[in-house]
Batch of 2 targets.
Target 1
Amino acid sequence: MTSELSGALTLGKALRAAAAQLKAAPTPLLDARILLKLASGLDDAGLIAKSDDPLPAEQANIFSGLITRRASGEPVAYITGIKEFWSLEFHVSPDVLIPRDDSECLIEAVIARRAKDEAYNILDLGTGSGCLLCALLEEFPLSVGTGVDRSPAAIAIARANSQRLGLAPRARFVVGDWAKALEGGFDTIVANPPYIPDGDRPGLRVDVGYEPANALFAGEEGLDAYRAILADAPRILGSHGLMVFEVGDGQAEKLVEMVTKTFPEAETSTINDLKGRPRGVLADRKSFAEKD
Ligand SMILES: C[S@@+](CC[C@H](N)C(=O)[O-])C[C@H]1O[C@@H](n2cnc3c(N)ncnc32)[C@H](O)[C@@H]1O
């Protein structure tokens, strides 16, 4: 047990001591609370109600171990094995990227352009934990979807998440190199591919270093995965199709240019995340087709 958490502490004091140990993390108190819930088996209400109760020695030991892991940079989601996305619970491991809240703007962009009572054929390229595909299948109950990833371990996790969420009957998961082995016919395609330039690797936060490199890096400018996907996109996206990409900081303008070249007839626009930054680019072929 580390010195800060040793001794007979109440739950409340253990929580504050752990948060102080995590002061270098972006959200110390939140992280400490999640890990104390894991160590104690209590929920938020239980932590408040038992704040003045002593933390049993065995739980203090477990908590101390979890805080040490977090203090060394390991992401909370890899420690707990769980991350919420679109109010759904996803199991995660270091084989998959941890779903980011920012990516929810991709789901919102699809919802804004699609009718919930229609049946779509959705494709999620680089599905990882399966978070984007599962969120879309949850929102569009008549639709079916395919998730593709090059990593067999990621595909196993995505499939298990779809089963846990009751979405498996409408979801198919395939190991593959983007869409190369797929037949076309998709009307809604989402992709959050790797987009960090290789040269940015040394400057990344310590916790990002725990995530799989093949989920993060995409060549000198971070654009290699977009190029590979767009090379196949006209073949797999239907004539009324919608394609939505997540983009990294400073990449939106370049991707709009690339997408416009690929789909000159489509309406192309950027998508902002919750903080108002461009986080996505979409191409909507439907508006063009409707003018015919
Ligand atoms: C940034 S992660 C996105 C994961 C998930 N969609 C999300 O939003 O959290 C990118 C994913 O693309 C996958 N990937 C990388 N190269 C690929 C390729 N050539 N073909 C298919 N998937 C690939 C990685 O394994 C990783 O799971």
Note: The longest strand covers residues 237-246.
Target 2
Amino acid sequence: MSEPDIVCTRCGACCDRPGYVYVSAKEVERIAGYLNLAVEDFTQRYTRLSDNRRRLSLIDSKTGGCAFLDDARQCRIQAVKPRQCADFPWRWRYDEYEEFCAIGRALAQRAQANA
Ligand code: SF4
Ligand code: SF4
């Protein structure tokens, strides 16, 4: 699901929030390779277990957003970012995402106009 005329502004707001950024084993391999790190090294330095210890997530930064969001609010692993990131907000979203996401605002406006 997407709307060709509604695009991500790459503002970084969705990345600058607390919460799990889940990664699969394949994604870990891909990101580690992109960063020229051994999988074990990457896993130890940049991932954590979810509370139920069933899934692996990227770590948070000191301020609570994703550790891979740089100072310019861009993703340092954009080329290999996890599926969860690529799917937001078209395939999943937070309830309140319209408050911070340009796509959410545009979709809400469109829905109002069409109501
Ligand atoms: S991996 Fe990149 S796109 Fe995904 S939350 Fe982190 S900074 Fe954002
Ligand atoms: S908050 Fe919305 S517009 Fe901003 S980077 Fe995330 S998906 Fe793109």
Note: Helices lie at 25-34, 39-46, 83-87, 102-114.
